[in-house]
Inverse folding.
């Protein structure tokens, strides 16, 4: 291979890496005045919060880009979401369990009638807490059962979260509708419906776990 050919290959590789770096910086991590963290592909307005551009890589509502490689891989394949409500002891216990084990998870709150109806469509009932690991659904809190499914998904048994990691802020299951701008405003914008989630198999034997 000639020297000129090697030079051309090296130049092409550097160009590809440069393009990849630019594409990886398409998301902004925005820290608002109240400390809440959100993610957007556009920079915030002045005074709306501090934006940090970079390879954020969001999966299942969780920013996984800063996680260790092994944890990032499993969190991307099998994102964890907790559905919880106010004044719910089992929900608090489930949240504490996930946090203690170091599971990066998103939380959706179920506090309104619309939230309860959406949860009913997803899980078949309105019981809380409700946990999803990938497409697997778990109703009610059981540390033994949750551990079995997290182990099957190959989440680490002890926390591998980086120092200073902050879980994303909980968000309502059903987004609040914007008020009409006038009495004659178009009311055709219906409340967004959550994407349907496949019902779990009746057999919850760990040997038959499917994600």
């Amino acid at each position: 291979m000639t020297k000129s050919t090697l030079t051309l290959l090296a130049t092409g590789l550097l160009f590809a890496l440069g393009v990849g770096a630019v594409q990886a910086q398409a998301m902004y991590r925005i820290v608002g005045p109240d400390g809440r963290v959100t993610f957007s592909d556009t920079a915030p307005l002045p005074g709306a919060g501090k934006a940090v551009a970079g390879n954020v890589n969001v999966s299942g509502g969780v920013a996984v880009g800063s996680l260790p490689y092994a944890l990032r891989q499993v969190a991307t394949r099998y994102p964890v979401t907790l559905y919880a409500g106010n004044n719910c002891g089992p929900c608090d216990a489930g949240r504490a369990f996930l946090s203690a084990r170091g599971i990066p998870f998103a939380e959706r709150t179920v506090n309104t009638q619309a939230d309860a109806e959406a949860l009913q469509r997803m899980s078949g009932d309105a019981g809380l807490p409700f946990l999803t690991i990938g497409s697997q659904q778990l109703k009610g809190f059981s540390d033994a059962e949750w551990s079995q499914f997290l182990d099957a998904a190959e989440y680490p048994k002890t926390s591998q979260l980086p120092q200073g990691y902050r879980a994303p802020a909980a968000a309502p299951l059903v987004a609040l509708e914007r008020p009409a701008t006038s009495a004659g405003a178009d009311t055709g914008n219906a409340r967004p419906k959550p994407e349907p989630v496949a019902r779990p198999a009746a057999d919850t034997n760990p040997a038959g776990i499917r994600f």
